[in-house]
Specification:
This protein is α+β, with helices and mostly antiparallel strands. The protein has helices at about 5-20, 20-25, 50-65, 120-129; strands at about 30-35, 45-50, 70-75, 80-90, 95-110, 110-120. Strands 2-1-6-5-4-3 form a 6-stranded mixed sheet. Strand 4 and strand 5 (about 95-110) form a beta hairpin.
């Protein structure tokens, strides 16, 4: 069975992030894409545009001391977009992160236009302060 193109886009973006290819990550997003991550920690906020989104992802990696790791559990694609379920972990400066996150990527014309990032909020806020 062939994977839905929106599933492939989300999977390709995660794989690019995992290997540090931020240019490929950037190319997955529309020029006016929005990524929203609720919370009170250092990485919470609304990021608009591919540069801001990649900047947020790079900052999260930096704040984790380079230990941030994503394990995709599943990605479900449809004509609306893709829903990504992942386990995120990190261990830095005496803090440990290990939680499940759900990201809903709205995709239009082969580009992510909005990401609703919903983690274990307490775990993310505690780790990223």
């Amino acid at each position: 069975m062939t994977e839905h193109p929106n599933t492939t886009l989300a999977r390709t973006m995660v794989e690019a992030f995992s290997r540090g290819d931020l240019s490929a990550v950037r190319s997955a997003f529309a020029d006016d894409a929005v990524w929203d991550l609720p919370g009170r920690g250092a990485v919470a906020g609304e990021y608009i545009g591919p540069d801001a989104i990649v900047g947020f992802l790079a900052k999260a990696f930096e704040l984790s001391g380079g230990t941030l790791h994503l394990d995709v559990i599943d990605i479900l694609g449809s004509d609306w977009g893709a829903v990504q379920v992942q386990r995120v972990s990190a261990d830095h400066a005496g803090r440990t992160l290990d939680c499940i996150e759900v990201l809903a990527h709205q995709i239009v014309g082969g580009k992510i236009v909005r990401t609703h990032h919903r983690p274990d909020q307490q775990a993310i806020d505690a780790f990223f302060g």
